[in-house]
Each structure stands twice: as structure tokens, then as C-alpha cells.
Fold this protein.
Amino acid sequence: MLRSTLIRTAIAGVAVLGLAGCGGGGDQLGSDNAGSSPAPSKVTSITVGSADFSESQLLAEIYGQALAAKGIEVKKKPNIGNRETYMAAIKDGSVDLVPEYTGAALAYFDKNSTETDPDKAYEALKKALTPGLEVLEKSPAADEDTIVVTKATADKYSLKSLGDLKGKDLVAGGSSEFKVRSAGLKGLKEKYGVEFKEYKTLDAGGPLSIKALTDNQIQVTNLFTTQAVIKDQGLVQLDDPENILPPNNIVPLIRTDHKSDDIVATLNAVDAKLTTDALTDLVKRIDVGKESADAVAKDWLSKNPLS
């Protein structure tokens, strides 16, 4: 939840999501294994953070507003940055809760993971987490990384799969994370033998990358499957038979010391009601309709009561 990103600035490190990660989660929040420390019976306040793209900000707003409706004091830290940045924040206690993506988070905590099944990736993530962190139930809603080209580029070079990019004289662009991650140029080179003549660092599935792609300044970029621009502009998502792009179901990542029964029940109820189609529509309202994440979250919660 690579993250992503007309759109949003992504899932990073994230970049949002959204969204595969690099690097390990070596920091220790405690001496026990993740999830083994007893959770508090009551939590009265929580700080909710988000990555630096609209979908993550929307999910953080939904989580925060749902918890506030249950009488919990909610502090917000939106737009923290890419995955490495907000992971540092949740590890040091600057935030207590962030929306995450199963496959991208797994790649962050276990850089050697090769899980491509959504359920297995979720179970592997629970085992790989830094002590003191937990994930709650995963949502059926998912936002996968996807690598896209315009229809004109696909037709010109007969592109259907990522392997078809090999040997082509193309420029790629996107986030700084996409350049170095396994769900990006690193994986394209290792699994498909694909290299580009140039890489332009822009944003994570955001307006800079979209404009560069549609203006043919770049020919390949990383977007996210909940972005309406893919369908609206007829972009072509290239097949990934080697599975360098992980499954990315939405999941709350929370500090164990802020996991109470009320919080768990509320967040699990939220994620159970989210769907990929609904999330796509909500993100479009922000990225295209220019509505605020706060307003879109409030509207969704009003139409999807949790009790």
C-alpha cells in the first residue's frame, strides 16, 4: 500500500496504498512477542495517523470519527509521510493507530516474504510484526499496486504483461519508493529482466505521475487499483504473472498499549463494511471531486452505521 496514489500521493515505504515495503522492522517496542502483552481494558484517547496520500487520510478519518462516536478522544496526525516515516511514528508512540495494507506492510516487516495469497499474507503479517504492534481484522476492501501504461503505449509496444516491457526504450516514473522496492523497479529487474532508460521521481500515483504519463513524458508508472483515473482514462494495467505486486487488504495497525475491546470492536466493524468498490468511489470524491477526507468519511459513516 507501494501507496499510494488523480489522485493521491502514495503508499509508501508507501508510498501509500499503496502502496510494497523495503527494509525490516528491527525496532523493539517491548521484550515480549507481538500481541503477547496484555491490552488495556479501557483506552480513553488515541492518536490516529495516516500516510501522505488521500486514501490513507480517508481511512484514518473514518477510523478516527468512528472511535470518537464511541466516546474516545481522538487526536489526528494526517499526512505523516511514506511507510518508513509513519512506521517510525507508530514505533516511537507518536501515533497509536494507522491504516495499513497487508502485503505492503508484510514486505516492510519481512523483506523476504513471497506470499501472494491474501489470507496467507495476513497471517504472515501478524507473525512478522515488531513486538508491541498488532493488526486487527483485515477488510474485504483491498487496494492493490498496479503498473500501468496508456493505451497508446500498450498498442505501440504490444504490452499486456510486465515481461513485455523488457527491451523497450521506455521512461518510468513515480515515487522514490517505487524506484527501489520489490513491487517496483527492483522486482521488475529481478523477476522480469526489465530496465528503463530513465526514471523520473514524481509522486506516488498522484497528479504529477498521472500528468507525466498522459503527456507521454513517462510511459510507465505505479498506480493503485482504487484510483478511478485508471478506468476514466482507459489506462492499461499490465499483468503480473511473477507476482511482484502483493495482495493489499485494508487493515488497522495499532499499538498493543492502545488496543482495548471497544477500539477493536469499532475498527473491526468499520473494516467489515468497507468494500473495494465503495473505497474507489470515496477516493474519487476526494481526488477528482475535491471533497475533504473529513467530509467524505463523515458521509460514509452516516450511511454505514456500525451499530
Q: What stands out?
A: The first strand starts at residue 45 and ends at 49. The beta strands are 45-49, 73-77, 97-101, 133-135, 145-149, 171-174, 198-201, 220-224, 236-237, 250-255. The CA atoms of residues 97 and 254 lie 4 Å apart.
